[in-house]
Amino acid sequence: TSLKSINALGLAGLSLGIGYALGSGKFSLIFSNKQGKERAQHEDKDKSGSWNKRAKDPKPPESSEAWVEVYDEPRHFVEMDNEFCRIIRFRFPPKDKTLFHRHSVDSFFVFFNSTRVRNEQQGHPMHEFEIEAGNAAGACYCTEPIIHRISNLGPNWMHGLDIEIKSLKTKEYKTKPLKETRNIELIFDNKTKGGKRMRVYMLSISTGESVKNLSFIFPKLCMCYKGGKLKVDDADGFTKEIVRYRGTYWWNAEAFKGSITNIGDSEYKVMIAEWH
Question: Is the pTM of this model over 0.85?
Answer without folding.
Answer: no
